[in-house]
Amino acid sequence: MIYPCLIIGSGPAGYTAAIYASxxxxxxxxxxxxxxxxxxxxxxxxxxxxxxxxxxxxxQMMDDMRRQAERFGTQFISNLVxxxxxxxxxxxxxxxxxxxxxxxxxxxxxxxTGASARFLGIPSEKEYQGRGISACATxxxxxxxxxxxxxxxxxxxxxxEAQYLSGLCDKVYMIVRKPxxxxxxxxxxxxxxxxxxxxxFEHNTLRLTGENKVEGADLVYRKNQTDEQIRxxxxxxxxxxxxxxxxxALFADFLARNEExxxxxxxxxxxxxxxxxxxxxxxxxxxxxxxxxHFRQAIVAAASGCKAAMQSDRYLKSK
Length: 319
What we know:
319 residues, FAD/NAD(P)-binding domain, five-stranded parallel β-sheet, 29% strand, elongated
């Protein structure tokens, strides 16, 4: 059987694509992967998604989206995609292999595999996920109004996160492992001149502390290899700003990506480029964080999922 539309990914982009595709009678099949909701699930509560005036827990929001897609006829497969074979000219269906060795064929494929925040690798990160650790100041900063938080990182993203949080919090620590900031000069100036931000150069996070939630962090200060000091800071939130890794390695042999691995799409479209970066890959679309290095918001991902489904519909009608 050749499916009209196959969707890979179960975050806001994937489920929204499924809602629109199923209402367009594309009989979509959505491969959910290992984590319902993707990156959204490491946040505590979602308060900035339209339609939830009192906020909503991430799992509940994703379950609502899933049930809506199911209502219109989306078929779900809980499995992992291990390999793909995309047809360059659209004459043959695209092929997708699952972990159980099944091979699915589809005329259109919507990639909504998202991106994963980079973590430090300390054991307490997992312990405090959803209880004080965040990878998105825009998403979670509101919960730390008039509190003290820490931001890990020294690049533009970390500086932007610290600046944003300084408008909400009483104090923001920046934990920077190097003796300098890697950010652009204008961002460095803003951070260094902000009285609410204290930059801790040459510090690394050793562990997070607290009863059932983040209440502090133990840092190690290394001026040189022989001089090491332990410092404790009291904080209410711990924000990771050391980058994201788009989950796109699976498509590296077919689709053009930027240096960070984000899938390149044509302008405001969700159409993917072939490896040459010039020709569109017929019937292949990318939605959500896997193609968005800038915003990484659920509402933006959902909007791109809508666009991908509508473009899939138009592509199939054109064939």
